[in-house]
Amino acid sequence: MAKKRPQTKAGKTGQAQVTNGEIPVVGAREPCPCGSGRRYKACHGRAAAHAVTELVQRPFEGLAGECDWVALRELVPAATVPLTLKDGLPEGVPSVTLATVLPMAWPALRRDDGSVLLALQNEATSGDLARDLADTLQRALEAEPGTPIPARRVPAEGPRLQDLLDADAEFAPEVHTGFEFWIPQSADGADPEVAASLERANAAAIPTVKLASVDSAYWCETPDKNHLRWVMPYPEEKLLDALARLQAAGSTSLGADTRLVGSFRAHGLMVPVWDLPTAMTAEECEKPAAEFAERLAGALASDAPLTAEERRARGGLTNRQVTLS
Fold first, then answer.
1. Is 126 exposed, middle or buried, given 0-12, 13-18 or 19+ CB atoms closer than 10 A?
2. Residues 262, 265, 268, 271, Cα dihedral to 10°
3. Nearest CA to 323 among 264, 236, 261?
């Protein structure tokens, strides 16, 4: 049997004491920087481990455009959004822009001109995507111009996006046909690695358009059929009831040969999905989507118990749900 490792009392090791707010993140088996003599994982690392396993179901709740944050994270290949910081831009940072993805899967990039690009579709290292993104954003704001920001394990305690961004600022995504926004117009030429990454990303991007008539609905084109994917802000149970009422009444269609086929569940919100004929363009979805939004508002307002037919429709919708995150 291995001998127990003696634990030194704080203050007896000659190690400087630090407060909880100053504890850096170190390897799980390394001595905790607080000077307790215990390994990090058994001391201040416990909070970090707990944060990893405790998933924040709605990481974008409280931000302007929550539904569009979800769409850009899970559904939209290429898009950008200007971000407004609560305390204004630091000196030397002309702008901060959210991007769906960056070359070489960089979490963020401080460009040569000092501007910052923050990628949304990178892997999270904790259970709170808003905290991961805030950590990356802070490091990008402090980095030297021309520096890609690497991934790292995020401290258990730290600001979230909601602490850094202006909640009242407009969140207005611009959907792009490709990833040319990676390369500034003033650049003479792209780095070969960036150019290769750009070519691969453009080849894989699905044509996507944000509808103008309703909020957070995105048309996309695939080889076999087109789709409309619509991120909705309503509580899931209430939305399922409303969709079931409309489904039972035959009122979920967006036109000939269209069909509500199911939904995604992503970051605490529901994303109903329609199959569309390949000939149906994004522009042709605008009017039917607006009319459906009116029907949905009426169904959401109803508190009547579901009929037997509506309950069957609800069961079918529930069975066709897929959880993305």
1. buried
2. -50
3. 264
Report whether 43 contacts 37 (CB < 8 A): no
Strand duo 226-230 + 269-276: pairing: antiparallel
40, 29 Cβ separation under 8 angstroms: yes
Cβ contact 102:119 at 8 Å: yes
Phi, psi of 208 (to 5 degrees): -140, 140
Output the six-digit token pair for 312.
Answer: 């069957």
Distances in Å between the alpha carbon of 38 and those of 19, 25, 200?
16, 14, 47
Structural contact between residues 163 and 62, judged by C-beta atoms closer than 8 angstroms? no
Q: In this predicted model, what pLDDT tens digit does every residue of 62-98 receive, in sequence order? A: 999 999 999 999 999 999 999 999 999 999 999 999 9
Q: Which of 260, 224, 217 is nearest to 240 (CA)?
A: 260
Question: Alpha-carbon distance 124 to 133, whole Å?
Answer: 8
Q: Which residues pair with 148 in a beta bridge?
A: 109
Rounded Cα gap, residues 231 and 252, in angstroms: 16
Q: What is the pLDDT of residues 4-46, one digit of tens each?
A: 333 333 333 333 344 444 455 555 556 787 888 887 667 776 6
